[in-house]
Write a structure and sequence with these properties.
Length: 109
């Protein structure tokens, strides 16, 4: 019961990350990284403060689920294209093709 505030913060962070991803906002990477860190702290405290026996077994099972959340958040945070739209000019193949044909170097004889 003592860590309810931390769990609510994780839930709010997940909601924010989801909203930012749906809007293709690049800040989703920052939000996902924060959620991963907070979840890791929550998982650690749950494991070290659990009483031996059933409570510890439940904490270990919850840690498995929290590990999956951490992995998903890290995947978002470390992705090259998280929160970006493919139709943005700097990501389009047309833009890449045009920029490849332009050279600032002088022509060699």
């Amino acid at each position: 019961m003592a860590w309810v505030g931390l769990d609510l913060l994780i839930a709010a962070g997940c909601g924010l990350t989801w909203t930012l991803l749906r809007r293709a906002d690049p800040r989703a990477r920052v939000s996902a990284a924060a959620v991963a860190g907070i979840t890791a702290v929550d998982m650690w405290f749950d494991l070290v403060t659990a009483n031996p026996g059933a409570a510890q077994a439940i904490a270990v099972l919850c840690a498995l689920g929290e590990s999956a959340l951490i992995a998903a958040c890290l995947r978002i945070a470390l992705a090259d294209d998280a929160g970006t739209r493919t139709e943005q000019p700097w990501n389009s193949p047309r833009h890449s093709a045009q920029s490849d044909s332009v050279s600032c170097a002088p022509n060699s004889p």
